[in-house]
Amino acid sequence: MLQSVTALTYSIVLCDDIDLMKTFYRNLLPFPVATETETSLSLEAGGVLLGLRLRERDYDGHGGGTESPGVQLAFLVSPEEVATCHQQLVDQGIPILEPPTDQPRGHRTVYFSDPEGNVLEVFAEV
Q1: Torsion, Cα of 64, 114, 118, 52 (10° steps)
Q2: Which of 77, 109, 112, 115 could form a disulfide with 81 if both were Cys (CB 3.0 to 4.6 A apart)?
């Protein structure tokens, strides 16, 4: 066990098309930009930085796509906002994986995907 680890502060989505992914996440989320380079973007997402980084290292692997998404990210909203977010996603033509659903674990969710097939979730605790 890594006992000195006390928090998750940064999450990175590895990208094949960094420009497409930068545009998608900027248009999707209201988070301010923390840093940006030609091959990366970091957004201040509450207590965690959400990073996008171009796959350019030998160990970065290959994109997952819709057949095998590489990551799932969940964004918390109030219960009444789940339906609103769903409609905004539909209006923007973003692929919906599962429409608003009350889950047995006490969440109301809507699942969708980013341009590279990663699973994204807007959820509320109900």
Answers
A1: 90
A2: 77
